[in-house]
Amino acid sequence: MPGEQRDWADVTAGGKNSLKAALKAPPGPGQVPIGTGLNGLQFYPGYLGRAQQEALLAALRQVLDSAPLYTPRMPKSGRPFTVRMSNCGPLGWTSDESGYRYTPVHPPTDRLWPPIPDTLIAMWNDVARYAHPPEACLINFYAPAAKMGLHQDRDEADFTAPVVSLSLGDTCLFRVGGLKRGDPTRSFRLNSGDVVVLGGGARLAFHGVDRIYPGTSTLLTEGGRINLTLRRVTRPE
Length: 237
Ligand code: SIN
Ligand code: MN
Fold this sequence. Notes:
This protein is an alpha+beta fold. It contains three helices and 17 strands.
């Protein structure tokens, strides 16, 4: 297994002081249980090493050549997301005025999404503890000012399958809470190569990205952060 599994991370309590505390938190001795009270949140820091990240990035550049990043819009209001997005796999998650949904085609071009790179399928097989392959890999690109509000991933038919998420590029401050929006949250940093699994009792945990730390990684020449989220969408036969 490329990375060591931990069910804890260097975290700080959520709330308005979390960013300051997260920036101050030293690695190592500052590591404490995530403490959401939910089983099934797994954290694999440094799951992919630098060479593997670079190889995956090359495969992703090909994916993005055929399914370029686009700006999704919020349901109803049509307000643009701050992230740009694409997908690979048989299905891709998208959002516009008519709502959130999975579609087999890239909305701007109407072409099928390209296949999921092998490294990501291998990662799923290693960490998902689920007998069937992922159907969607959402690609989110965060420019320095992009973020993602607290939300649940609940557009899938089978919540026994986990959500497996890999970070590439600049570090972000990731926030995870409980099953209700108002539950207490914990924040911790995700670095390039880190993997988070939301499975079991944490499958429907609220989560989001509060901020990006520009210039913290040299992986992406253009800067910013890529998040890859693998999901099973349909219930297997
Ligand atoms: C997401 O929840 O869609 C993305 C999470 C992340 O960027 O880490
Ligand atoms: Mn999500």
